[in-house]
Amino acid sequence: MALKDIIKFQLKRVNPFQGLVIDADTWRDAHSYHRDQQRLHMLAFHKIGIVEGLQVTANNPPDLSVNIQPGMATDPEGNVIIVSQTQRYRIQTRDKGITYLIIQFREVPSEPYQPPDGGQPTRILEAYRIQEREKLPNESYLELARIDFDPAEEAIKNAKSSSNPGKNEINSSFRQEATSVTVAPSVTSEKPAVPQKAAAIPQEIPATLRRQSPWVTPYWEKPARICIVMA
């Protein structure tokens, strides 16, 4: 994650004290803090993309629809997307050219409502939206597949060759897979230091050191100099 993206996060948490008024703003701030912490962790320590599943396959028998398998992903804003059931999507375009199939994180107000009949939704469902696009959007998204669509063909098919999909075949080669961020160890050409022979330890320990706490370990670099090292 780039520094310019990390510094967008301004973390603020609730300061609890006796008599604090708990209203909608307080609840919102409390939950936003934990959500932002989670998003920051996902962006700083993981590479965003598809974690598992979400494969796109042709319908059986083949037609102009595809099936998106259950799975999980993290979008470029650190939001977690979960698809719990297989979703069938029918391609709408009839224009010849590349069609991008994408998934986007969405928040949907949900039940229960207060009051029950036509009131305000009391929950937010963290959901998603599956779309086809003629070009990739500027807003946050993850690509599931792309299809070089030809309206003359009557069906979408699985690719015979994953490295070279043909017309109306599902191309999954541009999917971004999520991984953990790893830091490569530094490489040095210098030779490792050769440990020096330890200096002789005086036979008699000074009286001042005998009174030291058992948590303090004495050692001597040279017979004439006394050093104290905290264990």
Poorly predicted residue ranges: 208-231
Structural class: mainly beta
Radius of gyration over C-alpha positions, nearest whole angstrom: 30 Å
Q: Please state the overall shape, judged from the principal axes of the Cα atoms.
A: flat
The number of helical elements comes to 3
* Number of DSSP strand runs: 14
- Helices and strands, in order, run as HHEEEEEEEEEEEEHEE
Distance between the termini: 38 Å
Content of β-strand: 35-45%
* Count of structural domains: 3
Largest sheet: 4 strands, antiparallel
The portion of residues assigned to helices is 10-25%
**Average predicted confidence as pLDDT:** 82
Strand order of the largest sheet: 9-8-10-11
How is this structure best described in words?
This protein has 231 residues and is mainly beta. The protein folds into three domains: 1-13 and 20-45; 48-180, no CATH class; 199-231, no CATH class. It is built from three helices and 14 strands. It has helices spanning 3-6, 24-45, 207-210, and strands at residues 46-47, 49-53, 56-58, 65-68, 71-74, 80-83, 87-90, 97-114, 120-133, 142-149, 170-171, 179-180, 216-222, 225-230. The strands form five sheets. It has a four-stranded antiparallel beta sheet with strand order 9-8-10-11, with no helix packed on it. It has a three-stranded antiparallel beta sheet with strand order 2-5-6, with no helix packed on it. A hairpin with a 5-residue loop joins β8 and β9 (120-133). The protein is flat, with a radius of gyration of 30 Å. Mean pLDDT is 82; it is low at 208-231.
